[in-house]
Design a protein that fits this description.
Elements (H helix, E strand, L loop, with lengths): L1 H18 L1 H20 L3 H4 L1 H24 L1 H20 L4 H29 L2 H32 L4 H4 L1 H15 L13 H24 L4 H22 L14 H30 L4 H8 L1 H20 L2 H19 L7 H28 L6 H35 L6 H28 L10
Helix pairs in contact: 1-6, 1-7, 1-9, 2-7, 4-5, 4-6, 4-10, 4-17, 5-6, 5-9, 6-17, 7-13, 7-14, 7-16, 10-11, 10-17, 12-13, 12-15, 12-16, 12-17, 12-18, 14-16, 15-16, 15-18, 17-18
Length: about 475
């Protein structure tokens, strides 16, 4: 029994090694953007696709890889993801043109989609319900570490070794994770005798790709511009076709009966809302700190108060959820996150650094308290043979929430800033702060909805085995 328990924690370490790469890579990229513009002599609109291509592809392929994992086995998909992500990182580092770099990022996204879709499924499959929350919390801690060290590590690598090393750093981590996964993660004895729904996979990809592209680029194109309306039409048609197709297939890409499980539906909706609110905060706060006169390095250091508190809280809340259940903890976490956003809305340009750090810490505590119990609840509510698709759908809602948060926060802030700037009695700073406060309060409202969705999830989990 003790040997089996020790082996489970070795599996967790193997998964954490893979989990830390994607958040490091994502948080490093923002630091490197100005350098890439200079290196490749390309406009920012083109260079932005280095991040955009990754986000769109990884978000649009999660469901497909989740379903493949249910059929072929989680270990094989996870290891393939590690191999592709690591090889693509090397390709990105050796890129001599912006086109090759973007192509490398697309390959990275394919590998990243495999990793992100399999991680909760692997942990739910090997950990019993009494330890599942703690395991998912520990994995969330590795994600928080990646987010926390990414900006400072990226700044160091770009300024000392060169931009290439923000990609090369993934290679040794990826190789170590691949070897460890081969040793530690058990392989399923046989493949599940089910067919892969290729039509459903294509429809899901079209649906998510067009939706996320519209959300992300809508303000730039114009929400009712011809290309914007085209994206909406593709999204609507793909959604209708996807639901009709999946409803009549014996082995669908996404088993729609999962949405009859209240824990699953409420938990995934809560995830969408939580990450929308989170990315309103993380997207807008650097602009506030810059307006306040802080340097990029000082702002980045101050922003780590948020992921640092998540790092501490996530494993604690996960362990507590194993004993207390998820509903109370995740609801409280969402409410504390809403409080954090309210506190952020009270800041002024003369607010002391300690007050900003404290507000960010409150927000980090709330998010850390919410996420591990919520993930454990969602993954514990579905049948074992659907762990892969449940894991990937949870990750999809997380990514869609990120994009929505940036779009909502950016749209509210930008439109109101211009509105207030045109009114008598408002100078540039006051227009900036009024718009920022309302954007933060919008995030607070979203987190309140998250708390409500979390509270109505119910409290009795169906066993995943």
């Amino acid at each position: 029994m003790e040997k089996e328990q020790r082996h489970r924690w070795l599996i967790l370490i193997a998964v954490m090694l893979g989990s830390i790469m994607a958040p490091i890579d994502g948080s490093i990229m923002n630091i490197a953007m100005p350098t890439l513009v200079k290196v490749f002599h390309a406009p920012m609109e083109t260079v932005s696709w280095v991040s955009m291509a990754y986000l769109l592809v990884v978000s649009s392929t999660l469901l497909m890889f989740g379903r493949l994992g249910d059929i072929a086995g989680y270990k094989s998909i996870y290891q393939a993801g590690l191999l592709i992500f690591t090889a693509a990182s090397a390709l990105c580092g050796f890129s001599h043109t912006i086109a090759v770099l973007i192509a490398g990022r697309v390959l990275q996204a394919i590998g990243g989609g495999m990793l992100l879709s399999m991680t909760p499924a692997i942990l739910t499959a090997v950990f019993p319900p009494t330890e599942r929350g703690r395991a998912l919390g520990m994995n969330a801690m590795s994600v928080a570490i990646g987010l926390a060290i990414g900006p400072s590590l990226g700044g160091f690598l770009v300024s000392t070794l060169g931009w290439e090393y923000i990609f090369f750093i993934n290679v040794p981590i990826g190789i170590a994770a691949l070897i460890w996964a081969q040793i530690a993660i058990p392989k399923r004895s046989s493949r599940r005798d089910e067919r892969f729904d290729a039509i459903g996979a294509v429809l899901a990809f079209c649906l998510l790709f067009s939706l996320l592209l519209y959300i992300n680029r809508g303000s730039e194109w114009g929400w009712t511009s011809p290309i914007g309306l085209l994206m909406l039409i593709i999204t609507a048609c793909s959604l209708i076709a996807f639901i009709m197709t999946e409803s009549h297939r014996p082995e669908p890409m996404l088993d729609l009966s999962l949405f009859r499980i209240r824990l699953f539906t409420a938990g995934t909706v809560s995830t969408l809302l939580n990450f929308s609110a989170q990315y309103i905060m993380t997207f807008l706060t650097p602009f506030y700190l810059t307006q306040k006169g802080m340097s990029a390095s000082a702002a980045g250091a101050l922003m780590t108060a948020f992921p640092a508190c998540m790092l501490i809280m996530a494993p604690l809340s996960g362990a507590l959820s194993d004993r207390m259940g998820a509903r109370g903890l995740s609801t409280l976490g969402a409410a504390i996150s809403a409080l954090g956003l309210f506190l952020m809305s009270t800041l002024t340009l003369s607010s002391p650094v300690w007050q900003i750090a404290l507000n960010l810490a409150v927000f980090g505590v709330g998010n850390g308290l919410f996420q591990s119990p919520n993930n454990s609840s969602v993954m514990g509510s579905v049948p074992r043979e659907r762990l892969g698709v449940a894991s990937s759908f949870l990750a999809t809602m997380r990514n869609v929430g990120m994009v929505m948060g940036i779009a909502i926060g950016g749209a509210v802030f930008t439109s109101l800033r211009y509105h207030f700037a045109g009114l008598a009695g408002f100078d540039e700073n006051s227009a900036f702060m009024y718009a920022l406060r309302i954007a933060y309060l919008t995030g607070m409202g979203i987190d309140i909805l998250c708390a409500v969705a979390s509270a109505v999830r119910g409290s009795h989990e169906a066993p995943s085995d």
